[in-house]
Design a protein that fits this description.
- By secondary structure, the chain is of the alpha/beta class.
- The protein folds into two domains: about 60 residues, Rossmann fold (3-Layer(aba) Sandwich); about 180 residues, Rossmann fold (3-Layer(aba) Sandwich), CATH 3.40.50.150.
- It is about 40% helix and about 20% strand.
- The chain contains eleven helices and eleven strands.
- The strands form two sheets. It has a seven-stranded mixed β-sheet, sandwiched between helices. Strands 1-2-3-4 form a four-stranded mixed β-sheet, sandwiched between helices.
- A hairpin with a 2-residue loop joins strand 3 and strand 4.
- Helix 3 packs parallel to helix 5 and helix 5 packs across helix 7.
- The two termini are about 35 Å apart.
- The relative contact order is 0.13.
- Bound molecules: S-adenosylmethionine.
Length: about 260
């Protein structure tokens, strides 16, 4: 995936310094914005899949499918519901207790990781892996800088540790029982319509299917592995013996216990 860094159109001077730092950190080209009017022209003429844009409101990814910037989105509502005593299917499947050590092997927008971090609390540990360098960068940045209205959510976001690595690579070097639970929410093979953030995320995400070998490695790193997928059949193929999720929910959570 080819990408470069630039700035938003306004406040170019102040943001250029930030954009140059990001370009250096990510080892990609910095393109001064005044060379191009529109970002789609920049993408086309430079033959790029995406561009990371430094704006006054933070980092944005722009590609042909749209714009993505970090926002805790669904985590806000989910946390409110949890606080009201309502059920969250993800939380129920992972059965997270205070102090739990959780590996979210497919971080994405970090909504699930935020819920896990809240439930595990300050004595717990949530590590999120993200194979896409661009997404890892923007989401990690957001987790450290975004201030939510709910202070508990802000604290939960700050506690998430992120690693830019594929699940397979990371799990290979994990000790036995390094975690209480490993969670996978890989990209669906066919996109689900309706989520604009996910649509903009798809072209920059890592879309390789989860392999059985990676699931086996996860079962060494934790006694429990949870996989989110659309169908029960695919979860059974991964070896899940318990399936949970709402009756009318489009997605299911499969659990494998060692
Ligand atoms: C469907 S999204 C996860 C959404 C996430 N659960 C949330 O709450 O926002 C999948 C994400 O995991 C990443 N990913 C997929 N397979 C991966 C792997 N094997 N290792 C690391 N990251 C992976 C993708 O790049 C994508 O960002």
């Amino acid at each position: 995936m080819e990408f470069a860094v630039t700035t938003g159109r306004s406040g170019q001077m102040e943001l250029a310094g930030q954009a140059k730092i990001w370009a250096r950190q990510l080892e990609v080209e910095y393109i001064p914005r005044n060379l191009y009017g529109r970002l789609d022209t920049l993408l086309e003429e430079r033959n790029l899949d995406a561009v990371l844009v430094a704006t006054a409101s933070g980092a944005r990814i722009v590609n042909a499918a749209g714009t993505f910037f970090y926002h805790p989105s669904m985590a806000v509502l989910r946390l409110q519901r949890l606080k009201n005593g309502e059920k969250d299917n993800f939380a129920a499947a992972l059965n997270i207790s205070r102090g739990a050590k959780i590996l979210d092997a497919t971080l994405g927008l970090a909504s699930d990781a935020a819920i896990a971090s809240y439930l595990a609390g300050p004595d717990g540990e949530v590590i999120g892996l993200e194979a896409s360098r661009l997404l890892w960068f923007v989401v990690s940045n957001g987790l450290q800088t975004y201030t939510a209205e709910d202070e508990d959510l802000t604290k939960a976001l700050r506690r998430i540790e992120t690693v830019h690595m594929t699940a397979g690579e990371y799990l290979k070097q994990c000790g036995r029982d390094a975690f209480d639970v490993v969670y996978f929410d890989p990209m669906f093979r066919f996109p689900v319509s309706g989520s604009s953030a996910m649509q903009a995320l798809r072209p920059v995400a890592y879309t390789q299917p989860l392999s059985l070998q990676t699931v086996q490695l996860a079962l060494n790193a934790a006694p429990t592995v949870v996989i989110k997928e659309r169908g029960e059949r695919i979860l059974r193929e991964y070896g899940c013996s318990e399936i949970c999720g709402g009756r009318y929910s489009k997605v299911k959570y499969g659990i494998i216990r060692r």
